[in-house]
Design brief:
The chain has 411 residues and is mainly α. It is built from 21 helices and 6 strands. It has a two-stranded antiparallel sheet with strand order 1-2. A hairpin with a 2-residue loop joins strand 1 and strand 2 (47-51). Helix 12 runs antiparallel to helix 15 and helix 12 (190-207) packs parallel to helix 16 (288-317). The chain is globular. The two termini are 28 Å apart.
Length: 411
């Protein structure tokens, strides 16, 4: 079996298309991750203000200086004090003279990141409302809770689901502690696991579909299919080889992305609450580090399952182009372009568990609709692990049955 797997790996890695495709997607990911940091600059009123690298470094330093502080009356009072130095006119606020001044850089900018978070909480989870509303801890946390409950209405939760999230809300601290998310936040956001999933989907569609069909097209399959034990062992070897290549490709993309994020944004704080980093109106008691780990596991598991599904479909259809079209259309294009209304709750929950959807944290991962399995309530990301494993097993045996019963005379 080891020799068979090695032979299948050699066949995949000797194809130029495998390396060309991977290198292209690697370069795309590097550009998306750190392109703006390396080459872009910030101009205001036609004048150079700062490089993007300096911009990121300053925001990172300011966020790290505030990291570990409780979002209580004292910190909120400091934020209110910083607003006194902000001009009333939008033209002045966005002008070069103000943005390059010491007043802005020393009095206002250090609080900008956390001020945006506060205003997002105040707006009830919607990006609207005054950016300079005076705020107290009572107003802040009441508004955040109202925003969470408003999202429950948007998702059309049942009373039992609302009760579940009310209990989760009780587990959250009364006063949040602000912590800088850093690389963990970026990994959980679109630039991380989401884009890696997108590139891996295309990589699988382009490079994995030929593992089975190439033998049928070139008619070398008769050498294997005429042997007594060749079919079952060869099928397993091909599946294993495809999964190994897919895992290695995903691991390299993930590793390089995470290293770049650490270099640009710093490691960040693993224990930072999801509510103070990327999803203020989410009710789950989970940290940004835990979210990043869960999304990474979902990324690798979904990549393996998609690889198995792709290989099984290619054997069933015996057509590279058809399989490629199905994978790209179903697993990526339709999943992102088609939005299921909240009224179709069952379909919407299934739709948001598609990898490219669930790895978008503000849509799939933080979707508060629940699955009730024999009285046990599971979130979408928890249910996704079960669904992915079952899907992989089912398609593995479907493909195996077709491969083992394939007759050369049938073509």
């Amino acid at each position: 079996m080891a020799n068979l797997i090695f032979f299948e790996l050699k066949k995949i890695l000797q194809k130029k298309i495998t390396w060309i495709t991977f290198i292209i997607f690697l370069l795309f990911q590097l550009f998306l991750t750190c392109g703006a940091y390396c080459i872009a600059s910030r101009y205001v009123d036609g004048k150079f203000l700062e490089t993007k690298a300096d911009w990121f470094k300053t925001d990172r330093r300011n966020a790290e200086n505030l990291s570990g502080r409780k979002m209580d009356g004292k910190l909120l009072a400091e934020i209110e004090e910083s607003k006194k130095y902000i001009p009333d006119s939008s033209e002045e606020r966005e002008g070069y003279e103000y943005l390059s001044s010491d007043i802005y850089n020393q009095k206002v900018r250090p609080y900008e990141e956390i001020n945006r978070l506060v205003q997002y909480m105040l707006a009830g989870g919607m990006e609207k409302g005054s950016a300079y509303t005076p705020v107290t801890p009572e107003i802040l946390y009441d508004a955040r809770r109202a925003g969470a409950e408003e999202s429950w209405k948007t998702y059309k939760l049942t009373e039992s689901e609302k009760e579940y999230w009310r209990k989760e809300e009780e587990k959250l601290p009364e006063v949040f502690t602000y912590k800088y998310g850093g690389a963990f936040e970026e990994l959980a956001d679109m630039g991380g696991c989401y884009y890696i999933c997108m590139f891996i989907t295309f990589f699988i569609a382009i490079c994995i579909t030929g593992i089975f069909t190439d033998e049928h097209i070139r008619r070398t399959d008769q050498l294997v299919l005429c042997t007594k034990y060749g079919r079952k062992q060869n099928y397993t070897a091909k599946i294993a080889a495809g999964c190994i290549v897919t895992t290695c490709a995903a691991l390299i993309l993930w590793g390089i992305t995470f290293i770049c994020f650490i270099g640009i944004y710093g490691a960040g704080n693993f224990s930072a609450m999801l509510q103070v980093t990327i999803a203020p109106d989410y009710s789950g008691n989970i940290t940004i580090g835990q979210a990043a780990v869960i999304m990474t596991l979902l990324l690798f598991l979904s990549s393996l399952v998609l690889c198995i599904v792709t290989m099984a479909l290619s054997e069933l259809l015996n057509n590279n182009i058809g399989t490629m079209a199905i994978i790209i259309a179903a697993a990526f294009l339709l999943a992102r372009l088609v939005m299921i209304p909240a009224d179709f709750k069952f379909i919407a929950k299934i739709w948001n568990m598609i990898p490219i959807n669930i790895l978008k944290i503000n849509e799939g991962f933080c979707d508060v609709r629940l699955w009730n399995i024999f009285g046990l309530k599971l979130t979408l990301w928890q249910m996704a692990f079960i669904v992915y494993i079952i899907t992989g097993i089912v398609f593995y045996f479907i493909g195996k049955r077709k491969y083992c019963k394939y007759q050369i005379s049938g073509r």
